[in-house]
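Pilot study result, target chain (641 residues):
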Amino acid sequence: MTELGTYFGKRAVALGAIVALLLAGFAALAQQQAAKATITSSTLTVDVKNVSPPAGGKIIYKLTWTEDGTATDYQVRVTNLGNLDGCTNASLSVTGIAAASISTCSTVTLPFGGGTYIYWNVTDNTDTGSITATVVLQVSAGASVGASIQPTFTLLQTVGSNTYSLSATAPARAVGSATVTPTATEAVAGQQVTFTFTLPPGWTCGNDGTEDPTRACVAADVTSGLSSPVVSVSDTNLYAPATVTVTGQPSGVGLNTVSLDVQYHGDADNAGDNNAIATDVSATLRVWIGLNGTLPTPTFAGGSASYQVEIANLTGQDASAGTVAVTVTFPPEFTSATAPSISGWSCSASGLVVSCTSSGTTTINNGDTVTLSGFAGVLSPNTGSSSRSITVQAQVTFTNLISGPVTKTATRTDTQDKAGSVSVTANPTVIPSAGSSVVQWTVSVSNDTGSSVAAANVSFQFKAPPGTLATNVVPASGWSCTVADAETVNCSRTASLATGSTSVGTFVTQVPANASATIVTRTATATLGLTVGSTTYTLQGSANALHPGTGQPNVTYNLVFGWNLITWGGQTTAVNGPNGLGSIVANVSAVYTFDAAAQTWLAWFPGGGPANTLTTLQHGTAYFVYVTNPAGVTLTVPAGP
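Predicted structure:
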């Protein structure tokens, strides 16, 4: 009995131990289930806007998870802090949690080179449903442009001796900086130049710190010596990269710095990252020389024109007397040039070239600018039928440099208007037959002198195409016309010619037949003469009419069985007409072409009737033609147009 009692006693103790272990396991499991029940998310979501913060700037992360409302403390931990300042200017806020329930940021440095992480503890959390935390981190001041930023966030919750965690790594972002690229590092005054500024995502123009998801850049954001700069931005979406172009003309010579006010904007939904990171991105333009001047008014009449030259000494050293030479070269449209008289300069003219050299005690210090005025020339009248470009050139040479002379050039181009114009219109523009035909020519003239011209100072002549058989005229009001011969009509004014456009009349010509095998161009010409002062301005206009020949050549197509792609070189005609596909229509089952304007296919079928959307073959248009004859067919038609 003693041994049996001892046996049962030992079994009871063992069974009790097993029961105790099972109860402890159930208790631990219950604790674990309770911990998991508090934070119900299976994942932690991390969002960050597509931004590229600068060194020293901030970046905002949004963490999202769900809870069941159980009051349980938890910790928000951040690892992978490369290129981030850790707790410096970092912050955490959680929806529904008072700031007093969130600890200050703390830093933990792990032993044996294990790295560093930061964390915040959150207490008294009884919120339920979706929870959002906002974490603001600061980029290290020494972070390089392009360096990666990609922290990992971990949410830890401890209930009893059990810890539950969720982790997620943020999308990678890069340290950014605005840059500028000028189209040139040198220019002349008045030359149009463009500066291209590149803004990373999250950057915008200005420096007022306003949070706005729409990127805006205006002329007020530009500081420069450019005249009326024009600013355009490629993308107004704050979270996309963009280029900002600034275009303008340097208003003077010297060093011209073009700056754009930019700021890192960051997440427009939260002002926490807008920490007034603003800067001026700039580039310097070297403007050595500029040339200004005006043509006489009215320009068509010519007269005296005066120019001035601006120069800047950007050589890096002072330019003493006799070491700076300026020349102005007038174009052949000028009849003469005159040298200016400028104190401290010796100037002379040779033909259309005016030269000036610094003299006496004149010294142009490095960085100084000088304006030389009085380069004069006499512009001849523009007596032709077209406006013409007048280009004057200025050049400066610095000769006293250790590295050798430096020469810079500027040009100025202005338009000298014409005194008027002549307009001629043919009807028809393509004569329908090769035989002798009638062509009407409508003529109008324009007096652009700025004032009416007396009738005695106006002349007009119409010349029909060479070989014309007869010409008649129906003059407009204010004109008297005489037919001099079969090709020539002379007209005069019965009253002064007012400024602006005036109809001359309609000239009716009988042109001869075209017996050749090629198209003949029939050209009529009208000439207006205006005498203003002692100068007569001759203005001319013309128009053409195409005349097909009686021996018009043919176009031949060797079409194979199946589909053929051809460009119709025949006349514009009906698809199945005698000058179209009429001779081979029995061997054609379909014709297609694509109407690009309507973005649709047009089709013709033998006997198609209403189904035929294609009715005409147009000269110069491409067509798909399906030939049913296995041996193919040959098509010959008169050539177009």
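One observation from the pilot: The chain has one helix and 45 strands. A full batch analysis is planned for the follow-on phase.
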